[in-house]
Amino acid sequence: MRLLLVEDDKSLQDNLKTHLQQANFSVDIADDGEEGLFQATEYQYDAAIIDVGLPKLDGISLITRIRNLNIDYPVLILTARDGWQDKVEGLDAGADDYLTKPFHPQELVARINALIRRSVGKASPLISNGPFSINTSTLEVKKGAEVITLSGSEYKLFEYLMLHTGEVKSKTVLTEHIYDQDFDLDSNVIEVFIRRLRKKLDGDNQYGLIETLRGQGYRLKRLEQV
Predict the structure, then answer these.
(1) Which of 31, 61, 80, 98 has most Cβ atoms within 10 angstroms of its Cβ?
(2) CA-to-CA distance for 147 and 225, rounded, in angstroms?
(3) pTM for this predicted structure
(4) Residue 26's beta-bridge partner residues?
(5) Local confidence pLDDT in tens for the 226 residues of the chain
(6) Which CATH number does the domain housing residue 188 bear?
(7) Which residue, 72, 95, 119, sits at the end of a domain?
């Protein structure tokens, strides 16, 4: 999952980026509202974290501009402890949730995970498809009772596919949602990770789990629940 973090406090920015990356998110950084607006319109994200007190363009105005552009991914705002008005204005502008500073980074991770799940109609952190399951809180992947060990990139790809089961996703879309803006979008790395996932999850192709649609991309096949 790829996040946009718009925060001008360098210390907090670094701290949050580290915790989010440890939770297997790819994170793009913006130091002010104008840069945040540019990135929000230039790249595809699964969610954004926006501080209210930003230079150049404040967080509330940034959220308003994003929503006016019909950008609808979840937005979580960061506010000061006594900023109840900011919370109300942020929610009214189109934010989906808020956190009051100071907060524990693990709470931020949990809230972002919940927002992303709800944005695709998933209420529980445990997502299942046939015998395959993924827990977006513990990052555990299973096939039946067997725990499957995936690399960080393999997990990100499988998580995104599980959240969008039955949907066709192009290599470009997969790359843009899994990696940050510094990644080489022209590489064929998605093909490599698809092959690895097929081998680890469905080595004998019993389920035909990941389908290739020539010229379109890949689709995680929707399986009957077991």
Answers:
(1) 98
(2) 18
(3) 0.84
(4) 2
(5) 899 999 999 999 999 999 999 999 999 999 999 999 999 999 989 999 999 999 999 999 999 999 999 999 999 999 886 767 888 898 999 999 999 988 999 999 999 999 999 988 888 899 999 999 999 989 999 999 999 999 988 999 999 999 999 999 998 889 888 877 666 655 688 899 999 999 999 999 999 999 999 989 999 999 987 6
(6) 1.10.10.10
(7) 119
